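Cross-check.
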Amino acid sequence: MGKRTRPRVVAKDELDVSAFPDQVSLAMGEIAASAKEGLLALSVAAGLEVMGTIFEHEVTAVVGPKGRHDPDRVANRHGTEAAHVVLGGRQVSIDKPRVRSVDGHEIGLETYRHFADTDLLTEIALGRMLAGLSTRRYDAGAEPVGDVAARATSRSAVSRRFKAGTTAKLAELFGRDLSKLDLVGIFVDGIGVGDHVIVVALGVGAGGTKHPLGLWEGTTENATVCKALLGNLIDRGLDPERPVLCLIDGGKGIRAAIKAVYGDLAPIQRCRIHKTRNVTDHLPHHQRVFIARKLRAAWVIPDPVKAAAELRSIARHLDTDHPGAAASLLEGLEETLTVNKLRLPPSLLRTFASTNPIESMISIARDCSRNVTRWRNGRMALRWIAAGMLQAEKQFRRINGYRDLHVLARALERHKEVIEEGKQVA
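Predicted model, tokenized:
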């Protein structure tokens, strides 16, 4: 039986460099202590060594080989200076080589400018804070980078970078060109943020993709704020002559704004979940489940005339003992049946019978700002919500039933033809 070699046991705070080639062993031995903090810290130490080699290579390319006389030399080495590069969401101190021209002017290193670019710091700060990490605990959420001096992780530094990042996100959202979007649906809703109300819009394209369209700040969901939002969308390319299904939660300001901008060209669908909640809130607990089931059964009737008759029958049943619930049901009743009038298939009702898609986006935006306890002004609210909307966009999937969206597109075209024929007759 052949001889077997016994594997050598290496302690977790020890790195065996004997297996490496000679030219690598020295460098690996110098950074072996970093292995105690994990693979990332080890990689950081190796990366810093490589960066130093890159600096030296560029210096040699500019100055020439070290220790050799060159009468045509255009620059000279000039020692080192303390500098900082971006690493693991922070800035770390390094010794950067200096180069001066023969007439005494400082020559910068292109590689250093690349490693010192702070744009990455802003992106990292934005991502971590939107994920819920506070400025107080920002440093605790950073990856270990070994025994290197770090900076730019103080509360004020992180706050400045986050403000810059959210300002850029707000500009990105307001700067989007909407002229190329083939929209079939628009969801509009409001978010209460401190003393402010941010009205937001979410579009659904003909391919089923969801698009954050824009937002506007006010103190209530009044018609003026909503018209300003829709006006901004039109200024950025949204076609007001194109029919589109609008989904709202029942706010009168939003409805008035849509009518003012689109007229009858945009059919309005009221959220059935909000309507059910508004009705059942007027009822005693033992009746709420029963009435909610009756409402859902009425809404699934394909014929809008029969569905409306059933809903009015429920309202008459409620009127004697609970007139508030009956009045709530009758208010805007026809707008809860818009999807029935458009003859949408059941596959699309999950999306276009409620405001769930925009509520989901709002929920993500709220979650991103859950650590904020003081909203200083409306601009701050806009920055946070815009960043949250774009964060939510990363998680978007195509809507349920997107393969049947051609049915909605044809229904909207028929709706437009009916509106135009009515104008001609008038």
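The radius of gyration is 31 Å. Residues 22-161 form one domain. Passed to J.P. for a second look.
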